Amino acid sequence: MEEIYNQFETDRLWLRPTSTEDTNFIFELLNSPKWLRYIGDRNLKSEDDAKRYIEERMLPQLKRLGYANNTVIRKSDGIKMGTCGLYDREGVEGVDIGYAFLPQFEGQGYAYEASNRLKKAAFTDFNIAVLNAYTSEENLASQRLLNKLGFTLKGPAYLPNDDKELLLFQLNRTTK
Q1: pLDDT value, residue 175
Q2: Exposure pattern of 148-176 as b/e (b: 16+ CB <10 Å)?
Q3: Which terminus of the chain has fewer CB atoms gathered within 10 Å of its CB, N or C?
Q4: Residue 95: strand pairing partners
Q5: What kind and span of H or E run contains 62?
């Protein structure tokens, strides 16, 4: 029997757990210029690599915790625009929120809408007390979004096996 996972809805969007049916989209998104610049090259050279990435990096957390990466779909036309997820990274304390959109869908409020809905789910549906977010110092759009979502800059941080300094933002369930 297949497990049923939470899906979320906003006025304009559906957020549903990413699955292997999103392989083509994930391949495109993870090779987009801003993903490569701000998040990093995941070395996906083919759609088979993207499918394996979903199976090995996204689905295990979904099965373990009931949340992970979500594909963000526009209701009006069913177009897959981006991702927004809650991540329990190995070697990192706490859960963080992350988002990425294809370039043609940036600057239209979709990232805020998806992230705001997932932030609420983190606190109410998944009982997460503190939500983290990481971004690079040069990603000013991401920093503005995190501030708009109510996150506070805590300072510099590093993710395991990555020597790039990031900025850590945090939001407590009690201060949301």
Answers
A1: 63
A2: ebebeeeeeeebeeeeeebbbbbbeeeee
A3: N
A4: 131
A5: helix 59-65
Give the CA distances from residue 176 to residues 119, 122, 125, in Å, rounded to whole numbers and listed in that order: 9, 11, 15
CB 132 within 8 A of CB 88: no
Q: Which residues of the chain have pLDDT under 50?
A: 1
Determine the pLDDT at residue 2.
56
168/5 Cα distance (integer angstroms): 28
Record the tokens describing residue 96, joined without a space: 């963080």
CATH number of 8-128: 3.40.630.30
